[in-house]
């Protein structure tokens, strides 16, 4: 009888859940202010979390040397301002010049690319590579146009991602300051929510999640910086135009799993191909070597066994995240999966492991 009552209760809860969802879709206008608020704070909050796990170890190091936590945070803020000014004085002028030259030369670059493709078609190269295809050039042009549209869409999302830069610049440092100052209190507050007998497990879960996120974020930054250095050195060796600009673009996009690496390759190949076929081949070779060093040498050394996630799982997560949302959803897909994995593993250990192993 108890089992039957429990089943009825579960069915009632599930039914009530779906009824609430259905009613919510009918009065969705009520939730618009909350949706707008979430959209406004999402980017600053994500940036705050990102820099929290980058800076918090340094803050902890300074606090251990008897420096007041607030003073340690302000000191780090001052160092960051100095670094920003140094970037503006040293690297930005060259990068800005490359951006302006790139924008100015885009029409001539595409004209050169079209001339190269037409030359290949006249020379019979397409017919040699694709003997069964009669209209190779139009198909290739259509494929390139589709690639440009995809690149444009992601570039537009990236632009929208940083378009509210002034708002982000105001809100993000404030959120980050209080996260760095009150980080331990947040963990304690979350621990006190659960019943007393589960607080030890909650504390361990939060510690594990914090260590995972810290390792993941710091590792991604280090790996991407090394990738950028390798690519830039390679572009300098082969003499690729706009090497610094293309490297910065690739490093930023490489934070987006899988898709970022593919999208960042498109402009590099286009710029190289507008020069010559040999330049394009050399550029692809540089990207391939840098990616192999990143994936097989640098990545495993930095991450080790910390990111226990299969490549197929990563692909599935990125595909699902791309369908559900945009760049932000893709960015948080892997950390969200790893957090959920830690929580589910602990719930299984607490409530189901002994029961299922004794079946």
From TrEMBL:
What is the protein's given name? Answer: AI-2E family transporter
Q: Which domain of life is it from?
A: Bacteria
Q: Does Transmembrane show up as a keyword for this record?
A: yes
Q: What is its main location?
A: membrane
Q: Which UniProt keywords apply?
A: Cell membrane, Membrane, Transmembrane, Transmembrane helix, Transport
Which sequence ranges are marked TM in the entry? 7-24, 30-55, 67-92, 161-180, 221-242, 248-273, 280-303, 315-340
Q: Which family does it belong to?
A: Belongs to the autoinducer-2 exporter (AI-2E) (TC 2.A.86) family.
Q: Which organism is it from?
A: Metabacillus endolithicus
Q: How is this protein positioned relative to the membrane?
A: Multi-pass membrane protein
Q: Does the UniProt entry include the keyword Transmembrane?
A: yes
- Record localization: Cell membrane
Q: Note the Pfam families from the entry.
A: AI-2E_transport
């Amino acid at each position: 009888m108890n089992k039957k009552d429990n089943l009825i209760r579960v069915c009632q809860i599930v039914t009530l859940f779906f009824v609430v969802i259905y009613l919510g879709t009918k009065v969705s206008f009520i939730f618009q202010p909350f949706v707008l608020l979430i959209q406004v704070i999402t980017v600053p909050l994500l940036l705050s979390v990102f820099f929290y796990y980058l800076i918090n170890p340094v803050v902890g190091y300074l606090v251990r040397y008897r420096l007041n936590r607030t003073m340690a945070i302000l000191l780090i803020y001052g160092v960051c301002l100095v670094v920003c000014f140094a970037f503006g004085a040293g690297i930005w002028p060259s990068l800005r010049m490359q951006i302006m030259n790139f924008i100015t030369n885009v029409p001539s670059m595409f004209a050169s690319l079209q001339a190269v493709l037409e030359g290949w078609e006249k020379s019979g190269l397409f017919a040699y590579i694709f003997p069964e295809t009669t209209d190779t050039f139009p198909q290739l042009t259509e494929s390139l146009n589709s690639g440009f549209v995809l690149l444009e869409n992601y570039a537009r999302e990236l632009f929208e991602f940083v378009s509210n830069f002034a708002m982000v610049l105001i809100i993000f440092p404030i959120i980050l300051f209080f996260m760095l100052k009150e980080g331990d209190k947040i963990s304690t507050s979350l621990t006190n929510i659960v019943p007393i007998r589960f607080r030890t497990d909650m504390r361990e879960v939060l510690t594990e999640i914090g260590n995972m996120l810290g390792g993941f974020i710091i590792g991604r930054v280090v790996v991407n910086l090394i990738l950028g250095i390798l690519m830039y050195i390679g572009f300098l060796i082969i003499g690729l135009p706009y090497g610094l600009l293309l490297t910065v673009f690739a490093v930023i996009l490489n934070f987006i799993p899988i898709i970022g690496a593919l999208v960042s390759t498109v402009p590099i190949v286009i710029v190289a191909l507008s020069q010559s076929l040999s330049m394009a081949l050399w550029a692809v070779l540089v990207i391939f070597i840098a990616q192999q060093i990143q994936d097989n040498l640098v990545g495993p050394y930095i991450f080790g066994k910390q990111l226990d996630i299969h490549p197929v799982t990563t692909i599935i997560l990125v595909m699902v995240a791309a369908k559900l949302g945009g760049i932000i959803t893709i960015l948080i897909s892997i950390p969200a999966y790893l957090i959920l994995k830690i929580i589910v593993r602990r719930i299984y250990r607490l409530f189901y492991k002994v029961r299922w192993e004794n079946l």
